[in-house]
Please model this.
Amino acid sequence: MFSRKNSEARFRRDLAQVFPRLWRYCLTLTANRADADDLAQAACLRALERWEQFEPGTRIDRWLFRIAQRIWLNELRAARIRQGGGMAPVDELDLIDDRADVEMNISAREVLRQVMRLPEAQRSVVLLVYVEGYSYKEAADIIEIPIGTVMSRLAAARKALVRSEDSEASKKA
Amino acid sequence: MNEPLEFSDEQLTAYLDGEADSELRRRIDDARTRDANLEQRLQRLGLDADTVKAAFDKLLRNAPAPPQALTDVADDARGPGGPAALRLAACAIGFLVVGSLIGWQMSSAQHDNWQSAAAIYHKLYVTQTLAHVNAIDSKRSDELRRVSAALGRPIALEGLTGANNLEYKRAQILGYRGRPLIQLAFLTADGVPVALCIMGAPSSDAKEVRADKFAGLNAASWIRDGYEFLILGNTDPARLVRFARHFETQL
Model:
């Protein structure tokens, strides 16, 4: 019993450590701060409910991201559309809290804006591979898609992002 | 007529990401020495991943605090004996409280009330949250006595069990800004979780049942005898109003 309690306590500590990255992934999926908050909370609750299914020694972040991905696709995203909310236009997103993040510079904001304008399927792989540093295979396992689909989404995202950069650069020139 | 490309965009992307196998890498390295078009294609895919990572890393500072149940080590002292549902509820309440304190959840004024907090919590309910809850009547009555005492108003089991196609499941004492918030959970015949929430409002005037919406979730609300009532569920508002009218007469 003692070791079970210890395992659960450790699990919760690990979960708390990963939480900011989990929230960031949720934000990338939902492109909406309020939905990201809800989704990150839901993923935590689901993980706590099933903590005994987590295999110690494996990476908790991947497990959590997969839980969030499933909840988003199977429950929250569908509910948002069912309730008539649709998907938020990206230009209306409030990704960064100015008051809390005065150091965020303009170029970083621009990069975020460009990534968040990508289709949801592309921005999630961009986050997993280029930000989280997962391999193609790990990203494919989290999103539960073939590796070939990860590759095609990344290729499309790269082309779109480079085009956006070029377009911004020509506007400034 | 264009010749077929020697390498696909996907292969070039894998090459740039260090995911190409050694044979593909060798072929692309070799082709780069003789094919100017290939170099242009690589440039068109030439995203600076470090810049993307740096921008997204700045977002981490804007993350809300983790749910309180994850950080509250003292929680362990209670031991694993408590029902999982109560522990999860404690987690959710803690999360809402933390959220209200730091303001991340309250970015818009519409969330700054108990009805929205309850709606946000209820949005996490799925059929499976309640499907397995089947307590015997004596246990439910005990639970309701505890809940009634916290609320300062009697709630009888008979008042909760007579609604058409709505099965009463359980009662919980939640809290909002230090005041008890009672949540009575139901499941419709088609598996939709519905919550009836009650909170004391001694200075509020009575209001008839009306359709409402909080945190994007359909609702029906009314005020009577110094208590605010709220029905929540991801279902048709007219259906919620029907449930509300039933409980308005039964409770």
In short: Residues 73-87, 89-110 of chain B have pLDDT under 50 and may be disordered. The radius of gyration of chain B is 27 Å.
